[in-house]
Amino acid sequence: MARASRTTKTKAAAAKRPAKKTPAGKAKAKAKSGAKSTAPKAAPRAKTTAKATGKPPATRSAAKKTRAQTYVEADPVFAAGLELRHAMWGPGGGEDQINAASDFLLPLQEIVTKYCFGETWTREALSRRDRSLVTLGILVSQARPHELKVHVRGALANGVTKEEIGEVLRHAMVYCGIPRGVEAYRSAAEVLNELGLD
């Protein structure tokens, strides 16, 4: 019978011997046996606290305030004006315009919201409905078709009917001139048509 080679014997002997344990292997073995591990623990993460930074820790749920919200919290007159703009035109005619305004247009939004709507439109001597009728007549006299379209929508939101809008335009045309009245009628009809009211 042929003798097994020395290399084969060496390999067989090595397989029977228990493997040397590395420090990590020793830690795993101790953990399995219930003994306390001597492996170094990872350093705990440093917590950012109010004491360390002087600020309360930020939370994910805390949403960033919009520009409109900041103004509303700082000024009750502005808040009243914005509420009225929202009631007449929704967020597109109020909050969205303020939040999207450039540095150049922001002062305009402040004046419109606070002075025009917050201080004037909110006065109690005239209702919003009455103010809408007056505004339509004035815009006819000034030949301002874009603003007239805006205020036709606002008037409808304030309870003015299509027939009443027509009467105001007709009345204003007598005093302001036929060309301005024609332009006003066309502008109003465009809005009424868009809203399915004409």
Automatic annotation (TrEMBL):
Signal peptide: none annotated. Coiled coil: none annotated. One of its GO terms (molecular function) is peroxiredoxin activity. Residues 1-26, 34-59 have a biased composition (Low complexity). Residues 108-189 form the Carboxymuconolactone decarboxylase-like domain. It comes from the Bacteria. Residues 1-68 are annotated as: Disordered. This is Carboxymuconolactone decarboxylase family protein. It comes from Microbaculum marinum.
